Amino acid sequence: MPRLPVVVAVESDTALLEFPLEDALRRRDVDWLAVTPEDAQSTLTELAAGGHVAVVGAGPAGEVALELVAETGGIEAVAIIGSPLSAQAVQLVADWPELALLAVADPADREGLQGVVDAYLASGHEGSALLVGAVDGATAERAADWLADRLHRTTSVDEVTLTSSDDWELHGTRWLPRRDHPVPGIVLLHSGRSDRAVFARLERLLAERGFAVLNLDWRGRGRSTNRGTYMELGADERAAGWRDAAAAFDHLAALPGVDAQRLGAVGVIHGAEHAVRAAADDGRVRAIVVLTGYRPVEPAETAYLTDPGVDVLYVTSTAHRVTSAAMRTLYDASSSRHTRFVEYAGGAIGYQLFELDPGLEPAIVDWFVEVLPP
After folding, report:
1. Residue 130 is inside which H or E element, if any?
2. Residues 47, 48, 53, 59, CA torsion sign
3. Is the distance from CB of 339 to CB of 370 less than 8 angstroms?
4. Lowest mean pLDDT segment, chosen from 1-10, 72-81, 180-189, 205-214
5. Average pLDDT taken over every residue of the chain
6. Fewest CB atoms within 10 A around its CB: which of 60, 324, 327, 359?
7. 6-152 in CATH: which number?
8. Residue from 76, 6, 60, 69 nearest 34 by CA
9. Is the per-residue pLDDT at 203 higher than 50?
10. Phi-psi group of 314: left, alpha or beta (phi > 0 → left; psi -120 to 50 → alpha; rest → beta)
């Protein structure tokens, strides 16, 4: 039986228990677990694998909580209560737009108020919130509402295994939103030089906006090496990676919470190639993001990418002249009003563009919301 969402409270000399947040959360079907800073890391690592985890830190433990969440990953949200923060902690929040932050402070506590307000103003997450008022039962209820909403919004983050039609054992991370209607599904396909870790931020951003997501290690990369590593494979075996994309589309489409007729994909170089080749004969895949480095080989691929019923977001760089020209030709040939072409200066490839432009991943999510509304 799936466990309830849980808030991990990092205790310090500040008496967090004086703030009646625990009872308020339990009334909202959220468990509470108090841990010391020394034990917090191991506890969070274990819990984060199952999703539905938020962290709370009060007073000096607020900065500790932020650092722990940054080190752990897979945490839905963090709340800081009356926490004086260093400039480094505030900068951590500023550099981490995917972090949903709840900042709570009593106006009578000037130092704590300054810290949480600075953190809130630094946050780039659209769901972050600031609660200023007496740290009492009424404020605890509002804080519990915010935390429970974040934690109940998505299902568990699952490690899944699927099998391609040619017997590759494929590993992936799957996110399923908690919705009362079927939602679109998005498959993420890395490049031949990387694995699913490159999409760690994008998978979360998509899930937070209501998409089902499958972030896949395709053949020979990451954990999907039961028949060899990518560099050991022959050209024909590598080219058959489209079978992995097809297995991923089938996996999402078979889930009861997914709208099987509204699938999408993000692919980097060979990942884009696999996505398009699998989608060309699959009428369920209606939107694809192509990240730098893919040129169609078969007429069916070109026909698919220029189909008026298929939306494509092309993202490339000026230094890749031949590939960028091919992508622009496809863009020009499309009659879809949602198909777009984005070109960056320089020579960054694929997921390298995420570092060049931190706004690219949120922009990709916004595009999917436009073309495949959750």
Report:
1. strand 129-132
2. positive
3. no
4. 1-10
5. 90
6. 359
7. 3.40.50.1820
8. 6
9. yes
10. beta
Contacts of 321 (CB under 8 A, 6+ apart): none
Question: What span, in angstroms and rounded, lies between the C-alpha atoms of 71 and 97?
Answer: 15
What share of the chain in percent tops pLDDT 70?
95
Lay out the sheet containing 183-189: strands in order across.
Answer: 158-163, 169-175, 212-217, 183-189, 258-268, 285-291, 311-317, 340-344
Q: What is the pLDDT of residues 247-256, one digit of tens each?
A: 999 999 999 8
Residue ranges of domains in the chain: 6-152, 158-371
E strand or H helix that includes residue 282: none
| Residue 2 DSSP symbol | P
CA distance 225 to 149: 38
Within its chain, how far is the Cα of 286 from the centroid? 20
Query: 158-371: CATH homologous superfamily?
Result: Alpha/Beta hydrolase fold, catalytic domain (3.40.50.1820)
Q: Token digits for 276?
A: 């398009």
* Tokens found for residue 280: 């060309």
Q: Which residues, at least 6 apart from 187, have a Cβ–Cβ distance to it below 8 Å? A: 213, 214, 216, 245, 248, 249, 252, 263, 264, 265, 266, 275
CB 186 within 8 A of CB 213: yes
pTM greater than 0.70: no
Cβ–Cβ < 8 Å for 168, 224: yes
Q: Which backbone phi and psi does 38 adopt, to 5 degrees? A: -70, -35
- Amino acid 3: pLDDT: 65
Tokens 């709340």, located at residue: 79
Token pair recorded at residue 85: 């923060």
Collapsed DSSP state (helix, strand, coil) of residue 169: strand
Closest CA to 89 of 73, 66, 110: 66
CA-CA distance, 185 to 160, in Å (whole number)? 15
Alpha carbon of residue 210 to chain centroid: 11
Q: Which tens digit of pLDDT belongs to each residue from 19-67? A: 788 888 888 888 888 888 888 888 888 887 767 788 998 888 899 889 9
pLDDT in tens, 103-131: 999 999 899 899 999 999 999 887 899 99
Say how many C-beta atoms besides its own lie within 10 A of residue 303's C-beta. 12
